[in-house]
Amino acid sequence: xxxxxxxxxxxxxxxxxxxxxxxxxxxxxxxxxxxxxxxxxxxxxxxxxxxxxxxxxxxxxxxxxxxxxxxxxxxxxxxxxxxxxxxxxxxxxxxxxxxxxxxxxxxxxxxxxxxxxxxxxxxxxxxxxxxxxxxxxxxxxxxxxxxxxxxxxxxxxxxxxxxxxxxxxxxxxxxxxxxxxxxxxxxxxxxxxxxxxxxxxxxxxxxxxxxxxxxxxxxxxxxxxxxxxxxxxxxxxxxxxxxxxxxxxxxxxxxxxxxxxxxxxxxxxxxxxxxxxxxxxxxxxxxxxxxxxxxxxxxxxxxxxxxxxxxxxxxxxxxxxxxxxxxxxxxxxxxxxxxxxxxxxxxxxxxxxxxxxxxxxxxxxxxxxxxxxxxxxxxxxxxxxxxxxxxxxxxxxxxxxxxxxxxxxxxxxxxxxxxxxxxxxxxxxxxxxxxxxxxxxxxxxxxxxxxxxxxxxxxxxxxxx
Length: 465
What we know:
Elements: H1 6-15, H2 20-38, E1 41-42, H3 46-61, E2 73-77, H4 105-112, E3 116-121, E4 133-134, E5 138-139, E6 141-142, E7 145-149, H5 155-162, E8 168-173, H6 179-185, E9 188-191, E10 207-212, H7 215-225, E11 252-256, H8 267-282, E12 286-290, H9 299-315, H10 327-338, H11 341-363, E13 367-371, H12 398-403, E14 407-415, E15 418-425, H13 431-444, H14 458-462
Helix pairs in contact: 2-3, 5-6, 7-13, 9-10, 9-11
């Protein structure tokens, strides 16, 4: 049962061949065996999960499900508030934080739809890193190869779904934080247009997003997460629970293999993205390779921006606990404190010019196709592909948060033991079209393995998982 998607589970509940009680117990048993190896989840509420599963089973038996996700297990990122659970934001300095007293809008929508929110998922300190390393949680490992990184910052959310601990998870994305771990872990996601998913606290560049094994499940989650919340500034959006694959005939797709001063795309990643482009071409799309649409360096400006945000969050911690974080966070927050207002203004100006260029490049096409990240992977213990410059591998993802544009990530192949994800980018408001394009690609690509231990991934087998 742990291999089934949310869509398959719901069909089983409807026709009576599956029970939420059996499914939840199967997943809890799997968590007992596998979570200690990958460190994806904390605060697993087994008793509460089984109570919720029994209530769901009773509703299904009565023919009165609570909502479109009734009885489907789901895990929630550390930084997304869930009533009664602790939000650490990956920080050792917040190890004794009091439990949250109410659900955030994304968690509230999932709970109202009947999803069983049974665990929180790990993340790096402050969500600052595109890696699965945390002062509070330790190292989260990639289920496809335990020596490799999960990406971040929605590290545990992606690792849990990839390992079959839950069919659904939710993360959040400030610079690639749902797309990067989805790429690392071979999953599907949408970073929606800003405003499509209500969330708190409000952020101009942070959005919540689903992380799932299939694009159909991402669509299903988006139909729930996009519903409005009176507490939030974002308006939400109407997204159907099911979508048909997009007819790509005549669609113009720009193939982007360079952006600003992002590291050069590794040959094995470029080959997989070009292969994905041929899948889109076979579906009728017109593929045009484009030159670097951001023709100037922007990564140092982006790093300045993130460092100032880190310094701001550190300043909000009790003074005697501000040192209880990863060394890379301490160094970055120290940089943030040292930057002047002029430094920050210059950085914002550079980012604004870069985001304008990527938005203009997207507007010339129906979609842009790129790698989600330029490299296949890096060691599980590393804070980034380049530990000295931990944000340099987010060049293809981060500007889309600044420009408010949507983008999906989907598995397009493997480089050794590491999954590789493509990124398909749309203009603001194209969320449904992107999801439909993802459905079309997913149906047409080569068959991909669903789970690492089903294909005997060496690191998983060696670990006894």
